[in-house]
Amino acid sequence: MVQERTAAVLPKKSENFSEWYTQVALRAELADYTPVRGSMAIRPYGYAIWEGIQSWLDRRFKETGHMNAYFPLLIPESFLKKEAEHVEGFAPQVAWVTHGGDEELSERLAVRPTSEAIILPMYAKWIQSYRDLPVLLLAWNNVVRWEKATRLFLRTAEFLWHEGHTAHRTMEDADAECRLILGIYQELLEQILAIPVLAGIKPPSERFAGAANTYTLEALMPDGQAIQAGTSHFLGQNFAKAFNVKFLDSDNQEKYIWSTSWAVSTRLIGSLIMAHGDDKGLILPPRIAPYEVVIVPILGRDDAKVLPAAKELAQHLGRRFRVKLDDRDAYTAGWKFNEWELRGAPVRLEIGPRDVANKQVVLSRRTGGAKQTVRIDGIEVTVGKILDEIQSELFERGRAYRDSHTTQAATVDELVRAIEQVQGFVKVGWCEMQSCEDTIRERTGASPRVIPLDEKASGKCVVCGMPAKAWVYYARAY
Ligand SMILES: [Zn+2]
Question: Mean pLDDT in runs of 10 for the chain (478 residues)?
Fold first, then answer.
C-alpha cells in the first residue's frame, strides 16, 4: 500500500500548480483531509514545521518582552458586536454555539474567529494606571472561520496561529510595537523560511476589520500570485473605546489605551510548499526542515558493518543537526531516496559497505547538483557549510523570481498587460482615492497588496493622473 504512494507520478509544478500543491501536501504527509468540513489534520511531519516556526517566534517574542497567555475559545455574541467594523468584517465567517447539551443558551457564543472581543474586556479589568502599561502578551491558539472554499494550509475553516494583543500608553508606543513585530516576521520569513517579502502597509480597503492601520508582509508565489505572509495591526483606540479600556495617566487624566494585534498562521506552511517545491516534491529550507540531514544506509549482505557505522554517523551529526536515520528494512534504498526527495529533506547521506571501508559517505543536495563523496572525518563542517548554501540558494532563487516578476506601470493598460502577461507584482502611483483603486480591481482582478514603507511617492496616479500620494504593489492574490 505505502509503496504505491510515491509510485504515482506527481503533477508537474509548471503545468498544474494547484494540483501539484495539494498532492505535495498530502503525499509528503504534511496534512490530510478530515470528515470535518474544511478542517484538516496536520500530520507529524507538517506539525514539526509548525513547531519550528513556533519555537523560533516564541524565543524572539520573549526576548522582546512578550509573554504567553490563554483566553476562552467562546466569545459571547454581545462582546463580538461591540466594535461595529470588527463584527461586520467577521460576521459571515463566524460559527455559533447555540446549545449546551439540550438547553438553548440565552446568548449565543461565537467560536473565536480572532480574540480582540474577549481580550479587551479583560484589559478593562487589568489596566487601571499608566503603571500597568504596556501589556505585551500573545496566545498560541486555534480559530475558526467558516470559509466557503478551503485548501490545505492556505484556507481552512480551523487553523492554528498566535495572536498578539498589546496595550500601550501612547500612539507612538503602539505604532513602534507594530513595526517591531513586522520586523520579527520579516526575519522569520526571509532568514528561516527563505521567502523574500515586501514590507509595508495595507490600503484602507484591505485593513483588518476594525484596525486603524495594518502592516503587512507580502510574498510572491511561483504562479505569480501574492500571498499575505504576516500582519501586524495598529488598532488605534477603536477597540479601547468599544470595550471601555481606560487608564489614569501620570497627568491625572483618564485616557483610552492604544492597542495592537498581530498574527501569523499555519498558512505559512502553504507558502513554504509553494515557494520552494519542484516536480519531485517539497524542498525545505534547512533552518525549518524537521530533518536537515537524512541518512540512508545501503543495506544488504553487509548490514553488520553498515548499520553500526550509519548509527554512529547519525549520533555524531545529531549533536549539531536535526538528523533522521532511515534504517527501515521494509523499503529499498531507492524507494527511500524518492521518499525523502518528496518530503524535501535538504541533505541526504548514503552509506554502503564500500563507503564504510573508505570512511566516507555519498552526499546529495535536495536543490540539485551532482552527488559528492565526503570524508566522515570532519563531516559536520562540510554538512554545515552545505546546509548554509542551500538556505541562501533558496532565498536567492525566490528573490530572483520576484525581481523578474515585478514591473512598474504608468497607465491602466500597461497595468492590465503586466498583470496578465508578467504575472507578479506591478507597482503603480496612486492618488489614494478609493474610486481609482476600484477601477484597477475591476480591470485587472488584482488587489492592492502593499504600500511600501519609507518609499516616497512621485509621479501621477495610474488611473486619474492626479499627483500620486503613494506607491502601491498590485497582484492577484491568494
Ligand atoms: Zn487617482
Answer: 58 95 97 96 98 98 98 96 84 95 97 95 97 98 94 96 97 98 98 98 92 95 95 95 97 98 96 97 98 95 89 98 96 95 98 96 96 97 98 98 96 94 94 97 96 90 96 95
How far apart CA 251 and CA 158 sit, in angstroms, is: 45
Looking at the structure, give the CATH architecture of the domain made up of residues 406-475.
Answer: 2-Layer Sandwich (3.30)
The structural domains of the chain, with segments of one domain joined by +, span 2-276, 293-389, 406-475
If you measure from the C-alpha of residue 447 to the centroid of ligand 1, how many angstroms do you get, rounded to a whole number? 15
Distance 410 CA to ligand 1 centre (A): 12
Distance in Å, CA 468 to ligand 1 centroid: 7
Q: Characterize 243-259 residue by residue with b for buried, 16 or more Cβ atoms within 10 angstroms of its Cβ, and e for exposed.
A: bebbbeeeeeeeebbbb
Strands 406-408 and 372-375 turn out to be: unpaired
- Placement of cell 559517505 in the chain: 361
**C-alpha of residue 434 to centroid of ligand 1, in Å:** 8
Q: Decide if 206 contacts 228 (C-beta within 8 A).
A: no
In a 10 Å sphere around its CB, with 0-12 CB exposed, 13-18 middle and 19+ buried, how is residue 345 labelled? buried
For residue 425, the model assigns a pLDDT of 97
Q: Per CATH, which fold does 2-276 belong to?
A: BirA Bifunctional Protein; domain 2 (3.30.930)
Residues flanking ion ligand 1, Cβ below 5 Å: 431, 433, 436, 461, 463-464
- Strand 95-100 vs strand 425-430: parallel, antiparallel, or unpaired? unpaired
Specify the pTM: 0.94
Cα(227) to ligand 1 centroid in Å equals 25
Q: How many CA atoms lie within 13 A of 382 on its CB side?
A: 17
